[in-house]
Amino acid sequence: MVLSGMLVLMAAVIFLVGELVTGSAATATEVLLTDVPVQSVKIPAVDGGPVHGWLTYGQDGGGVVLLVHSIRSNRVEMLGRARFLTAQGYHTLMIDLQAHGETPGNRITFGVRESENVVAAVDFLRRTFPHERIGAIGVSLGAAAIVLAEQNLGLDAVILESLHPTIEEAVENRLRLFLGEPGALFLPVLLSQITWFTGVPIDALNPVMHISNLNAPVLLISGTHDHHTTVRETEQLFAAAREPKELWIVPGAGHFNMHDYAGRAYEREVSEFLSHYLRVR
Fold it and tell me: Cα separation of 237 and 242, whole Å?
């Protein structure tokens, strides 16, 4: 009796978790002061409201980089990357994904609807900088949004940080981290909640099935101590990606901001990769 009661309680908790993980993460970002000169932009979207973002200017001919934040975050997360990239001459665009920051949206969809924001942002950059090569850096949800885009983005370089291969593995890893080994028993329940709240089939949320469609040079970054997305899972993505591709496993890093953690080493790796593919030679 006690065991069945505990199971019912945990199932109710999982239901609430489903509501929480898919619920909007709206935040007022426009009012924040930045130490990088930014121009506020509102990019028209096919569905829903405009995509809000910040644009920074580097030097013509240096390339442009789209910066896409992680889940339940916003464009502010990418300011550090924008700072060092702008100093190196890149134009950058930081966006709020739908249901994040100031971009409208009711539900987080783990990359599916967010990918429409990425498509709109890339189209905007192509119109704004018609002679520049375009790269993108995505973190976790941001990386998934890049990979899950239905149309060919035509990017010249892509950097994917802390990206899960499948939504099942991402959810199971988190259940084990928060609830221990018994947490895995609730995987089917939470996956069904994600489908219920988002209206998106689970099979549509697996980046490993789409990464080869990028048709662009890819750098995958993960950490040795990342228990949300393991090294084995990152290697699975790497195996599925097209050439040319590179893999950087950061010693000691977990599932957090790689730029904050690795600092100069991160800037060196990213700069070398982007320079090779975005600089006009």
Answer: 10
| Nearest of 130, 139, 197, 204 to residue 166 by alpha carbon | 204
Which neighbouring-strand residues pair with 160? 138, 220
Instruction: List pLDDT tens digits, range 186-197.
Output: 899 899 989 998
Helix residue spans in 88-186 (DSSP H): 114-128, 141-147, 167-179
Flag whether the pTM goes above 0.85: yes
**The two structure tokens encoding residue 36:** 């990088």
Q: Distance (Å, rounded) from C-alpha 80 to C-alpha 77?
A: 7
- Pick the closest to residue 135 from 51, 39, 63 (CA basis): 63
Distances (CA, A) of 89 to 31, 58, 145: 26, 4, 26
Helix 167-179 × helix 187-198 angle, to 10°: 120
Domain ranges of the chain: 36-166+205-278
* 36-166+205-278 classified as CATH 3.40.50.1820: yes
CA distance 202 to 71: 17
